[in-house]
Amino acid sequence: MAAVAGHEDTRTRLLATALRLFTAHGVEGTSLQMIADELGVTKAAVYYHFKTKDEITEAVVEPGLRELESIVGEAARERRVGARIDHMLAGFVDLVVRHRALVALFSSDPGVARALEKHFFGKESCMVGMMTILTGPDPDPARVVAAHAAVAGIALAGGSPDLAHYDDDTLRESLLEVGRKLLGRPRRRG
Amino acid sequence: MAAVAGHEDTRTRLLATALRLFTAHGVEGTSLQMIADELGVTKAAVYYHFKTKDEITEAVVEPGLRELESIVGEAARERRVGARIDHMLAGFVDLVVRHRALVALFSSDPGVARALEKHFFGKESCMVGMMTILTGPDPDPARVVAAHAAVAGIALAGGSPDLAHYDDDTLRESLLEVGRKLLGRPRRRG
User: Which residues of chain A have a CB within 8 Å of the CB of B100?
Assistant: First the structure.
């Protein structure tokens, strides 16, 4: 048990370290050796968990994707179209704000974009689920374009280094407003 | 004179061919040899115009950037804040729609993003000029976030393969509406 806990702990630290190095040097500019050095372990210890940098990149991205999947699932279970959109929008904005560093990396780094591609942009992906919810039933082109612009705008503005000095609450409220305006949703009471 | 005209013509064809190959295979997946083969010229003929693929990528991107610069300049010369924003927005949307293939490449290809970076994201770049116009004087955080989301949303939705089946007019009108909503601008009359 202790060994398993130790391995889990190393894996978690490894992923946090990888994200930090990816942010500083890009995925291309980060080697397994650099991750090992930063962690103070041998390269063999890194290999124990991950065989390639692509595997690490996928593992860095995975928790955020799982969260997005579960938000899509929750939103889809709302009965009213408006409530579905509001749930999806609030969940997506909150995810982007909490994972700002990763989102910034995703928008700027080809390595992360590649790792995300198969999960995020495949036919069955959560991106399709999110878009279906945000466009609503029988959308006209203006609505489809607005939903695409909302998702791209929220993700890129959320991860933008130009906006990194805003605190989470300010960024979250401003990004929600972006989504509400584009999707025609009222401000929530309370 | 005839020789110069011939060279100009080859250069233009070379850039159009490069954009087509970049779109099909990515910048990384396109070689100078592939460009030469597609044009039916020798690799030496390509070298006559460009020494590296980076030079070609920059040259492919440059006309669009020059257009953006001149739109920023025109918009800045408008006297009223609202007119500045409307001019900038209409010009940017039109540019994105006319250069859809390039915008799509820019959003998805690290090679193009790198070539654009120094022109587009530097301190003195036209991106800064565009943002200054779109946010208006003394913007609050919500306004800054909205302007960033508008630019990112328009560019990424405009270049999205999911929306490639919309005709130019439909896409242009829908993207303008995205910008107007986020920047609080009224629809134009007429």
Answer: none
For residue A116, which residues of chain B lie inside 8 Å, CB to CB?
A: none
Q: Each residue's pLDDT tens digit in chain A (190 positions)?
A: 444 556 668 888 999 999 999 888 888 889 999 999 999 999 999 999 999 888 998 898 888 889 999 999 999 999 999 999 999 999 999 999 999 888 888 776 666 666 666 666 665 678 889 999 999 999 999 999 999 999 999 999 999 989 999 999 999 999 999 999 999 999 875 4
Q: Which long-range contacts (CB under 8 A, 24 or more apart) does B45-50 make?
A: B45/B10, B46/B14, B48/B7, B49/B7, B49/B10, B49/B11, B49/B14, B50/B14
CB pairs under 8 A between A and B: 103
Inform me whether the C-beta atom of residue B41 falls under 8 Å from chain A C-beta atoms: no
- Which residues from chain B sit within 8 angstroms of residue A174, using beta carbons? 141-142, 144-146
- Classify domain B53-190 at the CATH topology level: Tetracycline Repressor; domain 2 (1.10.357)
Q: Is the ipTM of this complex over 0.85?
A: yes
CATH code: domain A1-51 is 1.10.10.60
